[in-house]
Amino acid sequence: MTAGDVSVLVTNNHFKPALVCDGTDDYGAVNASTVGLVALAPTTGAIMGWIKPLSKTGTYCMFSAGDNNVVEHLHFGIESGKLHGECKVATVMQWDIDSTDAMDFSDNKWHHIACVMNGTRPVFYFDGFAVAMTDTTTTDLTAWYDSITGGDHGAIGILDMNATTTLDFDGGISKVKIFQGITLSASEIYNEFANGNANYESADARKVLIDGALYNSWVCDDLTDDGVGADNMTLTGNAINDLFYSDMVQKVNNAYTHAADIYTMVSNGDGGYTVMIVHGA
User: Fold this and answer.
1) Closest listed residue to residue 10, CA positions, set 281, 267, 278
2) Helix (H, G, I), strand (E, B) or coil at 179
3) Domain ranges, residue 47
4) By the 8 A CB rule, do 16 and 145 touch?
5) What would the pLDDT profile of 111-165 be if each residue is shown by its tens digit?
6) Which of 90, 91, 77, 73 shows the shortest CA–CA distance to 37?
7) DSSP single-letter state for residue 90
8) Which 3 state secondary structure label does DSSP give 177?
């Protein structure tokens, strides 16, 4: 951009506190999460969180658990815009699954994704609803934390295993939760999406069970683990915590090129905004 150039952005301010990664070696390290869960060896559970990827068709890891010395991991995220998860044990792929269809990130808002292991197979959810899935590898669809026995690395925003990091997330990740030893129902996943709480409208005994199963929970408004796992994040690379990360923040940051840039913002009255940036010298 040169002085006098104008950028006009039409956007929204649907914000969440987020771990923000720029797509190059940025993540939150949560190694103790993997160590603790591997020790418990659960055969059921769930990985979930809110994501706002920069690319609508990108390939990113939201959460991973891996072995620093072996090609062995469990991870969940998106691949070419589809929900994607896989589990590999001692270099052998146990399951490799995608949502049959690409997910709709076209509104540039936050979306909730979840992978539930019910003891029989993984089930993927997008914004509270189960999606059709395509199984690429089905060696052992029940493989979970009980199978990655050497797991010692965990990460939000990247696949971390065998002393290598790949599938770097570009965008924001919020409210990551990991449940162990429980199969969350479809209604409980929907309640996580709608209310942020799987206990909502559950029976009292079920509430106690779910509370005990919430092992790790990172709201991403700080580095603190709000679950029983107590594995506080370590920011790596240029990863930051942003209390109000939204499409507006994302687009303005990308368009803002100089300290002399001046921007104005006008509400469209329907939750959207138009931002005009006049670029400085």
Assistant:
1) 267
2) strand
3) 17-245
4) no
5) 999 999 999 999 999 999 999 999 999 999 999 999 999 999 999 999 999 999 9
6) 73
7) T
8) strand
Structure tokens at 2: 């040169």
| CA gap 19, 47 in Å, rounded | 16
| Distance (Å, whole) CA 108 – CA 265 | 18
* Position 261 in a domain: no
The answer as to whether 6 is a domain residue is no
Cβ-proximal residues to 263 (8 Å cutoff; 6+ apart), any chain = 252, 256, 275, 276, 277, 278
Are 245 and 19 contacting, i.e. CB atoms less than 8 angstroms apart? Answer: no
- Dig out the tokens for 245 from the structure: 């990360």
Residue 182 · residue 26 · CB < 8 Å: no
Do 91 and 68 form a contact (C-beta atoms < 8 A)? no
Quote the tokens at residue 252.
């303005």
Whose CA is closest to 25, among 193, 185, 181, 159? 159
pTM of the full predicted structure?
Answer: 0.90
Which residues does 254 contact at the CB level (< 8 Å), separation at least 6? none
Distance CA 159, CA 164 (A): 8
How many domains are there within the chain? 1
Domain membership of residue 187 (yes or no) is yes
Bridge partners (DSSP) of residue 214 are 179
Note the pLDDT tens digit of each residue in 229-278. Answer: 999 999 999 999 999 888 777 766 666 666 666 667 777 776 677 777 77
- Residue pair 79/173 in contact (Cβ under 8 Å)? The answer is no
User: Distances from the Cα of 164 to the Cαs of 61, 67, 68, 71, 160, in angstroms?
Assistant: 13, 10, 8, 9, 6
